[in-house]
Design brief:
By secondary structure, the protein is an alpha+beta fold. It has four domains: about 130 residues, no CATH class; about 100 residues, Phosphorylase Kinase, domain 1 (2-Layer Sandwich), CATH 3.30.200; about 130 residues, no CATH class; about 60 residues. The protein has 21 helices and 15 strands. The strands form five sheets. Strands 1, 2, 3, 4 and 6 form a five-stranded antiparallel β-sheet that branches. A hairpin with a 5-residue loop joins β9 and β10. α4 packs parallel to α6 and α12 packs antiparallel against α17. It is globular and about 85 Å long.
């Protein structure tokens, strides 16, 4: 393979050299060979081969690579751990073990960073008595601070220099992803370039603390009036894109049930609250905490749930929330045909789906878990098995559903600390049923009809433009029409009738859209019959005439 100059500067080239040396170290030298980067290897790496005293699986070796390459690659691995549609189960499970814990940056660098963010007089606003951080991760460090008012706060500071490091790594990742797509066709199905872009978008948002602060405010607003959910207050006057200041709330970690018992905090009550809060976020709000592990979710002195760290949040639109509620009800009622219908609605079926075999395997997977507590039902494992079964049948879902699956696995783990005998199905069923009933209220029906009318109005507005674009494509020769026929004796008559049917079909659609559009126009309300605008009545009448012609042409056609 011919060597080509690298498309970036010296620092990126040095980082690339480090990456390929680590790949070779952990047994991925074949990737380096096929992408033509062997000339960048150090002399020692060209000679040595990967050896370990204890044999490691490919998934374990990949985790070791990401951990050794540092913050950016750890974050990339964490994103990959939420995508069971792309990676085999053993890789997903191994990448979920990635820990985002690194040694803290020196205080003098953090202090200089705060001076750039807040100015030289920041010590008169916030006092940070302890220079050792409460927590230290790859992206940020957390300190305890005291405001001039005496309030204790948490100060989250972006790690100095991390933005430059991440941007450098993104450039190198893009370069490697393009090489992989070009020279390793067997890995193209993982869409490496798209994965890098998804990673870049995610980590840039995570490094903007104003986004995290806004997420905290939104989730607090969603839980307004719920006394047993606590979201720390954000101090916006001190918060920037690189520094986040929020109220410090004390609590007990979920993975310390013995301390909850010592404080006489009812674990069963907390477990029920956690399950209900999660379902509310998913089914009602469409905005959920996607990283609810014990470090980010504490228990207050009266059993309140205290949510922390809002850097990873999930979004679900109204249609997706309704589909999830429907799916839960079908599962509870063991309606596997309904489950498959929802899968086909929200997912993308890449090939013809063998529904019978899919249904049988789904039944075999889920049936053993009904009427069982968490103690006997590994809910997280069940969710992952259903996802992998769907992937095997070439049913792929939107990324937000995989993020939801990850959050559900973490909630399942939290519930096991609190109440392993909790029957989640008993909680899910009435909650989902209430959501479904809410969709049938007069108000919900009216809102749904209004949405449909708006959709039809938009269709009427864009129809002329779409028709014009279609004509332009036809004139440019981008549209080709192919006729396949048997016999020519009645061809002219058949073509004439089909053309007429097409015209009447287009007119039928046009008059229906026109009639629906004019229902909401103020000027059309001036002339009505039985409360319906005359223009709408005329349009629907013309549509009825077109429909009558079409039906008649089919029933009484010549054979």
């Amino acid at each position: 393979m011919k060597w080509k100059p690298l498309p970036f500067g010296y620092r990126e080239a040095q980082r690339l050299r480090q990456i390929i040396n680590v790949l070779v170290k952990y047994g991925f030298g074949w990737v380096v060979e096929k992408t033509g980067l062997s000339h960048l290897l150090s002399l020692g790496r060209r000679i040595l081969r990967f050896k370990e005293r204890a044999p490691l699986t490919p998934a374990q070796r990949l985790r070791r690579v990401l951990e050794e390459l540092g913050p950016s690659f750890i974050k990339l691995g964490q994103i990959l751990s939420t995508r069971p549609d792309l990676l085999p189960p053993e890789f997903v499970q191994e990448l979920q073990k990635l820990r985002d814990e690194v040694g803290p940056a020196p205080w003098d660098k953090v202090e200089a960073f705060l001076e750039r963010e807040w100015g030289g007089g920041w010590r008169s606003l916030v006092d940070i008595p302890k220079k050792e951080p409460l927590a230290s991760a790859s992206i940020a460090q957390v300190y305890q601070g005291v405001l001039v008012s005496g309030e204790t706060v948490v100060v989250k500071v972006l790690r100095p220099g991390i933005r430059e490091t991440v941007e450098r790594d993104i450039e190198v990742m893009r370069f490697l992803a393009r090489l992989v797509e070009r020279y390793l066709p067997e890995l193209r199905l993982y869409h490496p370039v798209d994965l890098v872009e998804e990673f870049a978008f995610t980590i840039r948002r995570e490094m903007d603390f104003t986004v995290e602060a806004a997420s905290a405010e939104k989730i607090r607003d969603n839980f307004r009036g719920v006394s047993w959910v606590i979201i720390p207050q954000i101090h916006w006057d001190l918060t920037t894109s690189s520094v986040l200041v929020m109220e410090q709330v004390e609590g007990v970690s979920l993975d310390r049930p013995e301390e909850l018992d010592a404080r006489e905090i009812g674990r069963k009550l907390v477990a029920k609250r956690l399950a209900v809060a999660f379902m509310k976020q998913v089914l009602e709000d469409g905005f959920f905490h996607a990283d609810p592990h014990p470090s980010n979710l504490l228990v207050g002195e009266r059993g309140e749930l205290v949510y922390m760290d809002f850097g990873m949040m999930g979004y679900l639109d109204k249609a997706m929330r309704n589909s999830i509620a429907t799916l839960l009800l079908h599962i509870v009622r063991r309606n596997y045909d309904g489950v498959i219908r929802v899968f086909k609605k929200v997912g993308v079926v890449e090939e013809t789906l063998d529904e019978r075999r899919f249904r049988l395997e789904l039944m075999g997977l889920l049936e053993p878990y009904f009427s069982r507590s968490l103690e006997g039902m590994p809910l997280g494992d069940v969710v992952n098995q259903v996802i992998h079964l769907s992937v095997r049948y070439r049913v792929r879902f939107p990324p937000e559903l995989y993020l939801l699956g990850r959050a559900l696995v973490l909630v399942d783990s939290d519930l096991r600390y609190l109440d392993p005998r909790l029957n989640v199905i008993e909680l899910v069923a009435p909650f989902a049923l209430r959501i479904m009933k809410g969709r049938r209220t007069p108000r919900a029906i009216r809102e749904s009809l209004e949405e449909e009318v708006e959709f039809l109005k938009e269709g009427v507005r864009t129809l002329p433009l779409q028709f014009l674009q279609a004509l332009q494509r036809f004139n440019r020769g981008e549209v080709k029409v192919t006729f396949v026929h048997e016999g020519l004796e009645d061809m002219a008559e058949v073509m004439e009738m089909n053309t007429l049917r097409l015209i009447f079909t287009l007119l039928f659609i046009l008059f229906v859209l026109l009639g629906t559009w004019t229902l909401g126009l103020p000027w059309a309300q001036r002339f009505t019959v039985w409360g319906i605008p005359l223009v709408s009545i005329f349009s629907y009448g013309m549509a009825g005439f077109m429909a009558f012609f079409l039906v008649g042409s089919v029933l009484f056609r010549r054979r």
